[in-house]
Amino acid sequence: MKFKAIAMAFGLVASVGAAQAESINMNLSGGNPGGLWSLLGAGMDRAVKADDADAVITYQATGGGFANLALLGANRTDMGLVHDAEVKLALNGDEPFRAPITNLQAIGYMYNWAPMHFFLNQSIAEEHGIDSLDDLATSGVGLTIGINRSGNITSDVALFMLAEAGLTEEVLEANGGSFVRAGANEQGDLMQDGRIDMATNGIFIRHSSFRAIDENTDVVLLEVPQNVIDATNEAFGTAAFTIPGGSYSKQPDDIRTMALGAMVVATDAMSEEMAEKLASGFLNNIDEIRNVHNAMKALSPELMVSQTVLPFHPGAAKVYRAAGLIE
Fold first, then answer.
1. Which whole-number Å values give the CA distances from 108 to 56, 162, 301, in the listed order?
2. How far apart are CA 247 and CA 263, in angstroms?
3. Could you give the domains of the chain?
4. pLDDT higher than 60, residue 179
């Protein structure tokens, strides 16, 4: 009887341990500490905790989306925040990836409203009649153009869009201009000091770096031709976007461009049960994610399933299908 009682007690402990092991306990690879992605990580952690107090999502600061995709490809992280454009490059095995990454599965889209901006010095724009990207190459002006640092997807997108509009690096140099690698805030300083003529980046409308450019320098926001938008979306899996007129001081009209989005990606190594718990937590407690920053207020269940570059994990798809969000 004693042996039976001990065995039953041990079985109960093992059962409790198994139940506890079913709680989410995962790492999320993000970006810089203190940035929006770290806030999203905290919001996701609160979202899953709302359904299960023992659930834990631990945010890990990394070099950003490209680094996170490499970690996912090597199964060295549970989840990663990545841009849709970065996923497209990873699936194709394009630079900076040496080969296609084939184990990726989506959990949910977080936002798709980080539009590419092209701010040009107003006096140069007026002198040479430049109001669109395709005017840059034909103007013959030797512009100094700020683009983000290597390893940031917005620099890849900016270079692609400028080249599609005719302004390749060769054309720019032939005109006497050059590209300058600089981060978002650095470009604002360089514009203010007159060390660059043009700033490019893909972040939220009226991001602090964009406000600094708009408030401290006389700039205009350039239109992007539709063929450039279409080619960019085809190459990077992104979507068209309109920056509403009045978003900046010298921008009375709507400006057409395209926008980057960010998504939570896992791998096919994640169990269906865990992916289901994640998607359910995010969906049921979406306000925990929305409330991390004003920029996230537009997050909706429909937006969470709107990405098109990557198949959803079967567990996540099960949740979204039950909610009537996907077929």
1. 18, 30, 9
2. 25
3. 24-112+261-322 (3.40.190.10), 114-259 (3.40.190.10)
4. yes
Q: Is the sign of the CA dihedral 213, 214, 219, 223 positive or negative?
A: positive
H or E element: which one contains 185?
A: helix 184-192
Q: Residue 219, class by beta-carbon neighbours within 10 Å (0-12 exposed, 13-18 middle, 19+ buried)? A: buried
For residue 145, the one-letter residue type is I
127 burial type by CB count under 10 A (0-12 exposed, 13-18 middle, 19+ buried):
exposed
Q: Tell me which residue has tokens 């194709």.
A: 92
Question: Cis ω on the peptide bond leading into residue 96 (within 30° of 0)?
Answer: yes
Nearest to 305 by CA among 327, 274, 277, 275: 327
Using one digit for the tens of pLDDT, what is the confidence trace for 50-77? 999 999 999 999 999 999 999 999 999 9
Quote the CA–CA distance of 279 and 238 in Å, as a whole number: 22
What are the structure tokens assigned to 162, written together?
Answer: 């400028």
**Angle CA 239–244–250, to nearest 5:** 125
> How many angstroms separate the CA atoms of 64 and 69, rounded?
9
CB of 199 closer than 8 Å to CB of 213: yes
Bridge partners of residue 312, in order along the sequence: 106
Closest CA to 243 of 252, 234, 231: 252
Is 206:246 a contact under the CB 8 Å cutoff?
A: no
pLDDT in tens, 291-316: 999 999 999 999 999 999 999 999 99
pLDDT digit string, tens, across residues 243-292 = 999 999 999 999 999 999 999 999 999 999 999 999 999 999 999 999 99
